[in-house]
Amino acid sequence: MFLRAGKQQFTRIKMTIVFLDAGIFIGALCSSDYRHTEARVIVEAARRGELNACTSVGVLSEVYAALTWVGAQPPQTPEFAEICVRLLVENPSKIAVLDTNFQVGLKMLEIAANRRLTARRIHDARHAATALVAGVFQVYTYDIEDWKVFQPDGIVITGPESVLTDID
């Protein structure tokens, strides 16, 4: 279930950083997930620093929830899920975890109101606000419909490659 080094090479671009959404990590961790092969290469490149990437505590909590969910195939114990999520971002991983602070909270509320988001979509607004406040505009996600709404705010879905054909 855990990660192994991928074979694909990424060229590191110094000024560009991408925000990794939860589905990227979930796909990488779950070998039975249809996204596994592609996502594992992305996450391993990010962990090695070949792909300049970041995420948030909110995304990491989604990954933990997905691993421990009773409907997961198979559901993981909280102890195992904690180890998996920690290893994604703990040293020597090069994936940065962005701060979700008061400024992010205000930006989240602004985005949610401007985009007329309700209920669970506030969490999507929090992820977008976390990236935007940190100056990160590029996102890798499998949930393109969730992220398209933030394009007017400056968010650009730049990967993974399998979803780029689905973007208008």
Report on the structure:
The structure is a single chain. With 168 residues, this protein is an alpha/beta fold. The chain is 48% helix and 10% strand. The chain has eight helices and five strands; from the N terminus they run βααβααβααβαβα. It has a five-stranded parallel β-sheet with strand order 3-2-1-4-5. Strand 4, helix 7 and strand 5 form a beta-alpha-beta unit. Helix 1 packs across helix 2, helix 3 runs antiparallel to helix 4 and helix 5 packs across helix 6. It is globular and about 40 Å long.
Q: Kindly state the percentage of residues in helix.
A: 40-55%
Mean pLDDT rating: 90
Q: Which class do the helix and strand fractions yield?
A: alpha/beta
The count of DSSP E runs of length 2 or more, i.e. the number of strands, is 5
Q: From the alpha-carbon coordinates, what is the Rg to the nearest angstrom?
A: 15 Å
- Beta-strand portion reads 5-15%
Adjacency order of strands in the biggest sheet: 3-2-1-4-5
User: Can you tell me the residue ranges where pLDDT is under 50 for at least 5 consecutive residues?
Assistant: 1-14
Major sheet description: 5 strands, parallel
What is the CA–CA distance across the termini? Answer: 34 Å
Order of helices and strands: EHHEHHEHHEHEH
Tell me the overall shape: globular
Quickly count the helices. 8
